[in-house]
Amino acid sequence: MLVYVVKDCLVKALQLVLRAVSANSPYPILTGISIQALPEELIITGSSSSMSIQYKIHQGDRGVTVRRSGAIVVPARYFYDIIRRCTDEWIGLEILEGLKLTITSGKSHISLCGMDASEFPPIRGAKGSAFLTSFSIPAELLSESVRQVFPSVSTSESRPVLSGIYFEWGDKGLHLTATDGVRLASRIIQHEHQGCEGFSAIVPGKNAAEAAKLLQDADSAATIGISSNQICFSAQNLLIQSALIEGAYPVVQSIIPKRYLSEAITETAAFLHAVERAAVLAGEGILQLSTAGKALFLLSKTAEIGDVRDEVSLTDRSGENFALALNSGFLLDILRSMKSMFVILRYTGSWSPLIIQPSDAIESAIYLLSPIRTASH
Amino acid sequence: MLVYVVKDCLVKALQLVLRAVSANSPYPILTGISIQALPEELIITGSSSSMSIQYKIHQGDRGVTVRRSGAIVVPARYFYDIIRRCTDEWIGLEILEGLKLTITSGKSHISLCGMDASEFPPIRGAKGSAFLTSFSIPAELLSESVRQVFPSVSTSESRPVLSGIYFEWGDKGLHLTATDGVRLASRIIQHEHQGCEGFSAIVPGKNAAEAAKLLQDADSAATIGISSNQICFSAQNLLIQSALIEGAYPVVQSIIPKRYLSEAITETAAFLHAVERAAVLAGEGILQLSTAGKALFLLSKTAEIGDVRDEVSLTDRSGENFALALNSGFLLDILRSMKSMFVILRYTGSWSPLIIQPSDAIESAIYLLSPIRTASH
After folding, report:
1. Out of 3.30.470.10, 2.115.10.20, 3.10.150.10, 3.40.50.880, which CATH number does the structure's domain A262-369 have?
2. Who among B87, B108, B307 is closest to A111 (CB)?
3. Complex ipTM, two decimals?
């Protein structure tokens, strides 16, 4: 291998693929990143045991000149730290003997011990294997939707399917769902596509969130390809591949209450700030909400620390007054992921979940939060 | 106590005094911050067992209105997190009953359990007790000087005096010295002052560095007052008090070599970047330096990881060529604290320390770094 690559291109590629690499992986090969020089492009890949991130620098884009093909895996952290400290515009990467990579920049010559590239897990998506389903949606919309449902993913390992986000093609488009049993978040990405009906996949929550972060700045469409045990997100030079979680996702549509007893609408920002103040003392503790006329009252009491009483105005309210207790941390997660200027609260009874929806996308996003049973409720 | 204070003033005060507070102090009272309302000012104080930081908000500056004097100690982290989340410009602080502070902002009412202010360690400097010595120097100069010598402070607890920075009035002004036995940093702040001759004090390194950080942005003179067991730094509304380390500081002037065998001058930035690249693989390991003509060669080898060879041009060189091995982390600390465009290296022999000095302040700053004995040296 002998390539010359523009430092800034390589630094950008490394920053992206490093997100998949764990410094303390039990598999030494996964603590490294793979550098693969093909005749027309340089491919940089980082992998964990359940996901891979790959970035391609094309010769046509003038980011790289490949003189001799080849491949090696080098320790991720050392390689990145050296590259970002190089001061020349171009960096030379060369394999002179065996498993050693020589990095040249100006008068600096760094020789880095590497590992055998053939031991690195291959990326299926890159090899163009047939997907069962494949479709494109705007990257930013996918990214935002994943980030909205992600907080509701279960962090417990007792039911592995709940640690994933459920991707399902329904009649309105792509449905994303996450629930941990206490809360549920569901978002529909309205999109028409032929031949996707009935497809579904459970994507590990953390991997989906990582993909959402990486796709956030891609101002193009993201292509999603799904095989029997893998999902692949790609946009521009970037490709993210994740394993799927096996199993059957619970049928959640039946949990969502069809009717409500009362409705209250308030400003998202003011409500968020009030919940944030309450959460300072309560942490993920109990927050009591109650309505009286056009006011929503918040109360949290924490023994030996103190209590917070707050009030936000309701812009609209119908039905009976209500009072219930919620986990303040869970409510915060929902409000923080909401971009809508107003939030709608729908009370469905003292033992059934509160429905929370953004006013501007009431058709496509819904959150459920189960109340906490307290002595006074 | 009943005071109204401008949120931004209080947030600023808390950010400063919180630097002294440790959330896991073994003394519960030190996990809190003291709020003291006097007729004309609000005094906010945070303390650890060896230092205190105090900030005053004056009624005259329109930052506070004191209606009723009083004092209380409240949990630092909770108080700060609530205050910064308040959305109104003014915040009310009131003690209504016993040890409870009521915080009011808009429609928010937060009641926070506090502690007895009489248990909080008093600040001596604030009470105007007589100092043995007191003098003023520009805050920025003091701050920069402390940060230059601080990296050489010993992190070992075997000789407590070496964990401090030695402040001493010499014939040229205020001398600051730090050494851990392997390296030494000395800086003279040239300043004339009557009646300070012969004074000296050992200030805990961490406390001095904290004071340096806090005084960094004060565009005024800093006043330093020293009593038998305390040092007090003050500037504008800020006061920092630290305990002193008891004991006799070693006489270091005799260690500094008076002659050198050769001298090399190079650009600080280029040298720093080369040492940074070498330190990626070597960490705080061995870096070999050698000169040949007008070039300075760097070499670091790390078994099973790789090696770095680098070269920087010398702008000037006199005397014999030299080669020696140094701790690369220690050399980095020195170069990073240097503002000078050029750095002077003075070789004094294979077993005696390398002298490193900034070219623009050769009179006032000196660093010594002992070589490491390796098989090849």
Report:
1. 3.10.150.10
2. B307
3. 0.85
